Amino acid sequence: MEVIVRQAMMNVIKPKIVFVLGCPGSGKGTLCGTLARKFNYRHLSAGELLRKEKVKVGSKYATTIDEHFRKGVMVPAEITATLLIRAIEKDPQAELFLIDGYPVTKDNFDYWNKMMASRVDLVGVLYLTAGEEVCRERILQRGASGSGREDDNEEVIRRRFRTYWTESMPLITIYQKQGLVKEVDSRKPLEALLKDVEEILQELLNTHSTILEKEM
């Protein structure tokens, strides 16, 4: 009977999620992309999903996304969550989903908890810190090098930073109180940063596995 119960639980194991948060320009996308390639994790960038949807022919969300991007304000929570959920459902067997740049507003946070909290396991939150000036310089350099992103300019950057401090930081505080946050200094060279984060992710996954075994 115990074997049957264990097998049933294995069949309903939820996707494992790590949110990767930090100031715009803190290196979330670069870090997640590198980790995904190295460990075959699934990297989902909220911003990249929105950018692809914005240019997708026939998308009912394209105009709304474009308008919000140009103003440097957050896209409605339902749209971002819908795109993330769609991407997760395409790859349910992935070992780990690294979701960067999400959630960034209370609306994001509330909508995700309403729609997905019971369907996934949030194993941790990586919080990348680099300092606003470092991040601003990175974004401007990215724009100067031809990123093609309409939000890589000084005016939009100021609005994005303001949104980050007023709306995103309170969410990080909530996750800190829940014991989920692992803070990492992302000013480090990528190789050193990867070493730190690899150790953190392994610790999070080991802890999650231990919890699952106890529940079985």
What's this model, at a glance?
With 216 residues, this protein is α/β, with parallel strands linked by helices. 59% of the residues lie in helices and 13% in strands.
Could you characterize the architecture of this molecule?
- With 216 residues, the protein is α/β, with parallel strands linked by helices.
- The chain has a single domain (14-215), classed as 3-Layer(aba) Sandwich (Rossmann fold).
- It has 9 helices and 5 strands.
- A 5-stranded parallel β-sheet has the order 2-3-1-4-5, sandwiched between helices.
- Helix 3 packs across helix 4 (62-71), helix 3 packs across helix 5 and helix 5 (77-90) crosses helix 6.
- The longest helix has 26 residues, at 190-215.
- It starts with a helix and ends with a helix.
What is the overall silhouette?
globular
- Please tally the helical runs, counting DSSP H or I stretches of 4 or more residues: 9
* Strand/helix succession: HEHEHHHEHEHHEH
> What is the number of domains?
1
Structural class: alpha/beta
* Sequence stretches where pLDDT stays below 50 over 5 or more residues: 1-11
Range of strand content: 5-15%
Q: What do we call the CATH homologous superfamily?
A: P-loop containing nucleotide triphosphate hydrolases
Helix content: 55-70%
